[in-house]
Amino acid sequence: MSGFKVYHTQRNKWYVIVKNWPLGLLLRHLPVNPLSSMRQALFLALLKGRGGAALRARLDVLKNLRSLLSKRRAVQALNKLSTGEIELLFSPMRGLSRPFSGKCVNSDE
Question: Are 7 and 44 in contact (CB under 8 A)?
Answer without folding.
Answer: no
